Amino acid sequence: MPRQDPTTPxxxxxxxxxxxxxxxxxxRGAFPGAKPGAPVELLGEVCDWxxxxxxxxxxxxxxxxxxxxxxxxxxxxxYSYKLRAGGSWSLDLDNPRTRSRDRIRNSVLSIGGAPEPLxxxxxxxxxxxxxxxxxxxxxxxxxxxxxxxxxxxWESDDARGTIEMTRAAEEDEHLFFRAELPAAAGxxxxxxxxxxxxxxxxxxxxxxxLPAWWKHAVLYTIFVDRFAPRPGASWGHDPGRDxxxxxxxxxxRLALPRLAALGVTVLYLTPTILxxxxxxxxxxxxxxxxxxxxxxxxxxxxxxxxxARGIRILVDLAFSHAGRGFxxxxxxHARGLxxxxxxxxxxxxxxxxxxxxxxxxxxxxxPLLNLDHPEVRALVLSATSRWxxxxxxxxxxxMAAEVPHDLAVSIRDTFRREIxxxxxxxxxxPAHAHRWTSRGALDCATDFGFHDVLxxxxxxxxxxxxxxxxxxxxxxxxxxAPGARSLRFVSTxxxxxxxxxxxxxxxxxxxxxxxxxxxxxxxxVPSLLYGEEYDLFAETPIAEPEDVWPDxxxxxxxxxxxxxxxxxxxxSLLALRASHPALGRGALEILFAEGGLFLFRRTHEGExxxxxxxxxxxxxxxxxxxxxxxxxxxxxxxxxxxxxQTLTLAADAAALVLRAR
Length: 661
Hints:
Residues 221-577 form the Glycosyl hydrolase family 13 catalytic domain. The structure is a single chain. By secondary structure, the chain is α+β, with helices and mostly antiparallel strands. The strands form seven sheets. Strands 1, 2, 3, 4, 5, 6, 7, 8 and 9 form a nine-stranded mixed β-sheet that branches.
């Protein structure tokens, strides 16, 4: 097979896609405006697009150009990447392979992948197991100008076949196609037409080890300080930015009957450790539950009652930075680099003057922890084990992309040794979640891309349905982690609430229920933010991520009439999701997307549901389907009417339609 530079050739013997291979990357970049001594970094899908990998670099005879090199350990895959120096970005000028999306081009590093014009490697996200484990999904891209179709031939020990792949998505330079293959126990050999003459050997990752309870989970995010007080305490006044409201673990326990009635199966709690702030992401003692929240006794009571109601608890572990009161920080604060704990933290490397502690974001009292330091790692794993022993069924790993990969694997292994059916969820901003979920670091990852698309389409009304559908299809390509390995949401405690955004862009009558409707009808594990069941919103939201205090208001002890109506709607949708497997586990097909109209289908073992959303003028939608001619209206949000196979939707309305023969 022709070798593409920089590319390692395909192996003749199949290997697991998890196997790491040493790859020497030698790249040439042009960095106009960068200082001659500016360090060169590698960014992209080899990491997280934010934290660069330092490269050894030397100048060339041309101004602004540098040759940069590094040896990387990577599994089989195709990796988009770029070089950066002094704030200037560059393609790898010696690598002809590129991939472009929305006119943003990146170079492509191939490890055991296909040559041009095919974009494919026998590993995630191009090869993944389907949620049902009975087949795998193969995706490949063809460079534009080299064909508008793709055929896949496959062969296992006991079967073979040929499939016309279906169009899945498109980008500036590539068309993408997809096919489903039986999940054979041994090696599957596949060949593409058009494509290289040689076959690719697929060795699938082990069968899905996600526990059954997670595959049917409905998460409910609780910002602990702003959810509920201890019994009998005053409540309701918003104390303002970064000031404690007095939330208490016993208040969460008293809300369990209401949450169980809503349909919640998992409580996700923001950190409850002893910390420097009321959000508690700046640790002081990660082994101790804050006494102000009720301490160990309150958590034991919550865990016991939640377990009795069939509700599990997922705790938040945040190890990126510490706060005032953390003993090693206090020692460093007093003694500087002379402290025995100095190496526990990250320091600046200025060209002049003494190094200074690096802090989280714009803060000056939240030093970044060095997660490569052995004693810091020991503290992290000790905290992980302690929380598993407290009865949590899972943990959320904050800023998971910033955690060294081997440490993330150790965190998951440590937790699962105590709780074999536990789940480790990662707060992961990069779209290429497969890098963490396929290599033992995470079981599930947040899907911020889904959040962004629904905010743009349904809340801001800034994009048409066809662009929303296109972006969702691309996200599916990137993640390589279908079904329950994606946690999806329309609001988070670090962003303005969906309803707050909708009202800001559409006036006081606009609600966030359309967003929740699509969330609960879409694949993946859904997560609600506390108060979304009441359609809670801030009158004056702040759009700055992680500084959205108006949207972190204390939850009302009793909803108003509008909140009660919203609660009833969300409870009905969650009941439908639980009782109709197509909504919870079904395959997805986008049937129509244009203007303000979006129609998609969920199917599972003979059950078929059409899901329609309209954010434009009232419309009559033809749902004619000769194979499934019987249609019945299962659920309507807003004004919706079904006559035969014609669905009438008012503006800002949605419907679930059950199909049958």
